[in-house]
Fold:
Amino acid sequence: RKEVEQDPGPFNVPEGATVAFNCTYSNSASQSFFWYRQDCRKEPKLLMSVYSSGNEDGRFTAQLNRASQYISLLIRDSKLSDSATYLCVVRRNKLIFGTGTLLAVQP
Amino acid sequence: NAGVTQTPKFRVLKTGQSMTLLCAQDMNHEYMYWYRQDPGMGLRLIHYSVGEGTTAKGEVPDGYNVSRLKKQNFLLGLESAAPSQTSVYFCASSWGQGSYEQYFGPGTRLTVT
Structure:
């Protein structure tokens, strides 16, 4: 079983839609949590950190549920430019990456 | 600032050949990392460095060596390339561990035939 599990998708949504991704992690000792974004054939870039109280950055909201060991990312009012792979990342003594969820926003 | 740069961008090797991938960062970061990314798998840590002159093994270090002679550079070597090392290699750097963001280079696409 992978330490960080994500639904690979693809999630095909129309512009303006709200879409949510979940991610589960298996090690309760995980200390920090992140969402990275990776465009096709490009490098990953930090989208946002995830805090226990939940946090928001514009159209993006991240939530962490330590008891159930899952992390979520909600994207509101999807834009074409949101099309990318979203990587769920947890940290113990190093970063552990999920395989990513592919989002395709359709016009 | 260029951020993190990697050379080369693409390379094709024959089995048994050797090569060195170069990573450079201009952000004065202490920590540097080498990852590989394969289809269906998350990024996996090969080796990392917590400062000039130091290196440590990551999750998948076999078949690779690294050196950090200067703070801004982190080299990844393949002494005898194998087809299993066909992958996309990313270098990254950060101020430290914890919640510090890792900044990634554009990647090197390596094919071993």
About this structure: The longest strand of chain B covers residues 87-94. Chain B has no helices and eleven strands.
